[in-house]
Amino acid sequence: MIFGRSERGKPPVEPVTLKILVAGGFGVGKTTLVGAVSEIRPLRTEELLTEAGRPVDDTRGVEGKHTTTVAMDFGRITLREDLVLYLFGTPGQDRFWFLWDELATGALGAVVLADTRRLEDSFAAVDYFERRSIPFLVSVNCFDGAARYPSQDVRAALDLDASVPLVLCDARDRESVKEVLIGVVQHAMAYAADRRATVST
Questions:
Q1: 30, 115 in Cβ contact below 8 A?
Q2: Full-prediction pTM beyond 0.85?
Q3: Of the listed ranges 57-66, 132-141, 181-190, the one predicted with least confidence
Q4: For residue 2, which phi and psi values (nearest 5 degrees)?
Q5: What is the spatial order of strands in the sheet that 67-80 belongs to?
Q6: Whether 124 contacts 38, CB under 8 Å
């Protein structure tokens, strides 16, 4: 499609736009994930970590991290001609969690990005989406040098419901991230269908 007109005489397609959240702990790779897949220049609200933030920002395991998201990351990806995803990366630190409710409004689903070196940092995001009945999947970001664990061990450590998908990804790799996003859309649509079926019976 070029400038709103379709090629070869086909009528223009009005894409469905869906909102997906990317959540998880501090330094887990949310900004990287959004940047790897976005077809537009991502909007980032990153600030340098400061000495004042050291008492509240736990940098164990991510000592090389020098910036942090203070509001959100935003990106866009067209999965098909008729399907566009808007990606909203949430801030990871506790003191910015008040923004999550605003970012979650209207979201189809969410990706909880996890790091096996700091798995406990994912608990808050898992709990948040469970409590609000927002469908989500967990994606383990395979950092270089991080230990690999069987999926069932990670699932047990996070106490995930059997219906919650768990996948591996490389947040730096566009194709890997696309597969994660396709997975969360499929899961969210199946979740919505199940809820409609439950209501109608």
A1: no
A2: no
A3: 57-66
A4: -125, 120
A5: 43-48, 67-80, 83-89, 16-24, 109-114, 136-141, 166-169
A6: no
